[in-house]
Amino acid sequence: MTGVTQAALDPRGTLGRDYARHFDVDLERVNLTYSNDLSERTNLLALAYQYRDHTQFWSAPQRFSSTGAPISSPDAYTTFNDYHQTQRGVKSELRTTTGPMAWMGGVEFKRNEYLNQTHAMVGYRNSPSPMERPTAAGTVFTDDRTGESVQALYGEGQWRLATDWTLTGNLRHDRIELDYDAKPVSGNRNSAIAERKTFDADSARLGLSWSGLANTVLFGNISTGFRAPTVDQLYRGSQNPSGSVANNPDLKTEQATNFEVGMRKTFTLLDREASLQTAVFQIDRKDFILDTNGQYSNGNAANIARYENIGGARSRGLELALQSSISPAWSWDLAYTYLDSTFTQYDQFLLAQGNPRGTLVGTGACTGPNPNWNNCYQLVPYNNTGNKVPRVPPHAVNLRTSWKPDQAWKLSTELDYRATAWADEINQEKWPGRTVFNLMVDYRRKTTWLSGATLSAFVRVDNVFDKRHYTIARGTNDAQSYATNFQYDGRYNAEDMSITVDPGRVWRVGMALRF
User: Fold this and answer.
1) pLDDT tens-place string over residues 392-415
2) pTM for this one?
3) Measuring CA to CA, which residue among 336, 303, 341 is closest to residue 322?
4) Contact 419, 392 (CB under 8 A)
5) Are 125 and 135 in contact (CB under 8 A)?
6) How far apart (Å, rounded) are the C-alpha atoms in residues 442 and 408?
7) Is 231 helix (H, G, I), strand (E, B) or coil?
8) Among candidates 223, 237, 122, 140, which has minimal Cα distance to 184?
């Protein structure tokens, strides 16, 4: 739902209209694994998989009819989305040891295909203005295919330098090939599109550990990572021609560097064995890919929207994990994370106020005796450098306890806490913190009627106390909310946030047979 008023009065979203609803999802996954110990020191592992996802849904609530009349029906939507995803891959690894050295080499191949088609479910206008040309029912907005091919070669080596010292290093090279084709659709000024893009990326890690103290291991490492641009970021203009969003095929791969030092230790706590692991880290990301109109507002103020390598971010934090037991039947584990994430570069952000499909009035307000924000919009510039990265809680705590009355049964409880975080890039509106309690009962035993098989079943209750909280909250621009009777008001505040409210208490039941 849109805005805090609707989130409070209508947590299930029955009074207003989500941006997307009426989902029909069909999923399928198949895995095949092969493992063979070629010798006492050598193992060969191979994995093949296929994953399919066919999703259909409605999006973009209808605000006005083709004649410009207001529409408020909860079932009135403009766009039908039909999405197919198929991912296939194989991976093989060979591991061996020789004296103080251990080696692993691997190869990976992926072949993914994404098909996307959207069309108008009804005839409509985006504003009541008679100057706007209506969109006819059946109009095809997108009809495209993305092929993604990944070839990777990687390896890792581990060398025991001395009795207490171990050096580990790994290196991986990825070649990512994107193959994007879009058929001609209504309003596509570029007609058919056929684009090819290739990215080569290397990532590496070097780590050192020391176990010279009793029951203690100290470690440190430096590693690199990457994230290649997506087709949506490269060719958004071709995917959404009616939005006039600019393509940017010259985007560079995002890069990340991670530094980490930590400790693993076992000790006695209240006469019980306990283990502690803690680490401090810093992750620097550069060439962060962001939309000039906001990280999540691809189509807003679309006349100038474009993805750019305009961002940078730094995340610093502490992770701590403590595990122990109270008795042979009772055990517990505690995890805590402190995380500070800040934009180190993000000096170009334009927040749209009013209808982004209306007439652009620059940085001023809509003029006239009766300004109508449904017909025009303005852009408010922000420099977000130094702001906190949104939707990153600075504190997170997870506490679990387990009780095993016998070998077959286990009862587990969980407390999960997330601190308050910012909901938007400009750090104006907040995503409230929350604490929830979960409960799970597990049953597991060997069967007598199928040799070697294990039967397991579980009952899980999430959010036991039925606490209403925001699962996620995002803020990007002025929106048509329940509080403003689904009209643009030329302001940005908490009523413009996109909010998903937790469904409350949820029961899950499952069972499995493994043999």
Assistant:
1) 999 999 999 999 999 899 999 999
2) 0.85
3) 336
4) no
5) yes
6) 8
7) helix
8) 140
